[in-house]
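Write out structure tokens for DUF2269 domain-containing protein.
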Amino acid sequence: MSFTLSRPWRRAVLALHVLCGAGWMGLDIGLAILVATGMTTDSGGTAAAAYTAARIVIPPVVPVLAGGMLVTGVLLGLGTRWGLVQWTWVLSKLCIGIVLTVLVAVALLPGVLAVPTELTGSADAVRSQVGDEATGLMFPPVVSFLMLGTSLVLSIWKPGGRTRWAR
């Protein structure tokens, strides 16, 4: 498939790509704060609210941002001079995007959806109801934030030169 994005389209797709990545990073911070609050608070109501908020917000929003970031990244790769596999930094970003999108489906969403819908009682009771998912939910936002940050750095510095698949 060979096409070139016009300047206005490239800018629009790039803006959407950055918006999806930045939004995802923001939600990572929010999820980490919610989970940390649920794990450390002495208030049962606060713990229940933190885990419930994560269960309500993350499933509909993160997959859209992940998919949006991946699709716009592929469009930018295919529709610009960079290509998808011609430059090390672009290929690295593509791999990061694919891995993170898969992790959303296999780790983040199942973990968040495993949080019970009706949480009541003391903070310890709420944490007991949530179970191991409480600590398991700290892993996805930390990993994705760091990997998205790596993608950001790759976009700015463009290290690595051309790949062996470059034309």
